[in-house]
Amino acid sequence: MEVAAKGVTCPVAHIDDPASVAALLAALTDLHGPAYGFALGRWDGAARWAGHAGRAVYRFVMAAEDAPLMGAAGARLRGWPDQGDWRSLPNGMVETASPWQAGLWPGDVVALEPGTQLEVQGRGVYFEVTTELGGYAAPQAALLRHLPDKPGGCASYAGAFRREALPPVRAPLSDGVEGVADRRGVNRVNEHTLDMRHDRLPPPSRHHHAPVAVGGGRSVAHSEIALVLPRRVYGLPEVAGETEGWVVLYTDPEHDPSATVEVALRPGSIVVTPAAGTGVAGHYFANAFAMLVAIPGFVAPARPIQDIAER
């Protein structure tokens, strides 16, 4: 489905609904242009995953079953268990000194650079983003189960599950003037996974983002793509009294915070909230455990949405 008002469209899909997925992928392509590509992929049985010439490929695993991932020595990995033959790298990564293997879980991220080849077995579903090479040092695999929690943003409560698979590398401001520098830095896509719960304090924030300045008075569209996962995979408690999550979408957050649509969510749901030159959408994930994929990265400051009564 698509939630639309005042010229802003928020695509919503589910991995088991091909028509909604096709509409969501088309909307993302229209929003971000030829610099990005989007797909929903599946595998069933042994497969070889290879990088594309001149492109970076990111695969965000939404479902996986009996799915070992295997690669060669010299791979950069993030969230790697304290075992095996490897050396430490900056930013919490390691480099393997021998061939490696790890089971894929929902929430894991695989990044394929040109020349990369990995083998995968089992079955699963992933959301794929391809983009230009921007110098971002992404891990070939980021294993969510071994990453540390960093509460913040929409999961700021004590003990929050919030883990960064593809953290941002923010660009410095040029001459200290906001909007002059290319705010993307080396980012073209970032991701973190978090448990957004309205039964914890503080609750998730109601916010939106602006387009991202790239210098010379120009900007590019920003979007956040929420990929909803099952909490049970990580042993997280369900929200009391709730069997499904939901999101409140703000279709005109800068001028009319009462313009909202509430959308039910379940594992496998995909939600896009965009920020473009022609319109900005906001969100409040009241109850969702999700991967948040940010394009061109988590480099656009969050702007809180105030209720009418607060203005």
- Most strands sheet: 12 strands, antiparallel
How confident overall, as mean pLDDT? Answer: 88
Order of helices and strands: EEHEEEEEEEEEEEEEEEEEEEEEEEE
For the record, give the distance between the C-alpha atoms at the N and C termini, rounded to a whole number: 32 Å
Structural class: mainly beta
Number of helices: 1
Layout of helices and strands:
Layout: E1 2-5, E2 8-14, H1 18-32, E3 36-44, E4 47-50, E5 55-65, E6 68-71, E7 76-78, E8 86-88, E9 93-96, E10 100-103, E11 109-112, E12 117-120, E13 123-132, E14 141-142, E15 162-166, E16 190-197, E17 207-208, E18 212-215, E19 218-220, E20 222-228, E21 245-250, E22 260-265, E23 269-276, E24 279-280, E25 282-295, E26 303-304
Parallel strand pairs: 7-14
Antiparallel strand pairs: 1-2, 2-23, 3-13, 4-12, 5-11, 5-13, 6-10, 6-12, 7-9, 8-9, 11-14, 15-16, 16-25, 17-25, 17-26, 18-19, 20-23, 20-25, 21-22, 21-25, 23-24
Keywords:
single chain, 311 residues, mainly beta, 12-stranded antiparallel sheet, 8-stranded mixed sheet, 1 helix, 26 strands, 5% helix
Task: Describe the structure concisely.
This protein has 311 residues and is mostly beta strands.
Would you mind describing this structure in some detail?
The chain is globular, with a radius of gyration of 19 Å. The protein is 5% helix and 45% strand. The model has no long low-confidence stretch (mean pLDDT 88). It has one helix spanning 18-32; strands at 2-5, 8-14, 36-44, 47-50, 55-65, 68-71, 76-78, 86-88, 93-96, 100-103, 109-112, 117-120, 123-132, 141-142, 162-166, 190-197, 207-208, 212-215, 218-220, 222-228, 245-250, 260-265, 269-276, 279-280, 282-295, 303-304. It contains one helix and 26 strands. The strands form four sheets. Strands 1, 2, 15, 16, 17, 20, 21, 22, 23, 24, 25 and 26 form a twelve-stranded antiparallel sheet that branches. The protein has 311 residues and is mainly β. Strand 8 and strand 9 (93-96) form a beta hairpin.
